[in-house]
Amino acid sequence: MKENVRLAIFVGVFIFSVIILFASSFIGNKENQIFIEENKKYELAKQQMNNPETDRSIELLMDLQEKYNDNYNVLRYMGLYYGLKGDFEKGVLFTQRAVEKRPFLAKSPGFCFQFGEMLFFYGDYKNSKAYLELSLANNIQEEHKLRIQQLIAEAEARLQGEGK
User: Which residues cross the membrane (predicted)?
Assistant: First the structure.
């Protein structure tokens, strides 16, 4: 009888393992589909940002932000979207949240340039100057250097005009 009990336990564990394996495979495939669909939304939102006549980009980003409120890329592109639309207050808010989630963004010269420019138009000249100088220190592309230097000079002039 011991042999029959062992065999029954072995067969039971084997069948249970096979069921778990199939269930996890099914769930994993479903998660992959969800990821692929949401990645397509993210890429579409980035592409739509270049089209000024549409607000589809922010709709897609807001949907993704509700699901992934800790994703720094979604926050960053929401900030960029609002900056491009001229709402610098919201742009700065979302971009600052992205930096809080992922501090290494401040090491990217392109990001520092974008954020520094957004801060400049928002009126935060001190932080704008700091980010713009950081972008110069991190070897920004040559074609952006002149614009950055102009913004730094303008920020310094405005800071001196405010007496700071």
Answer: 7-27
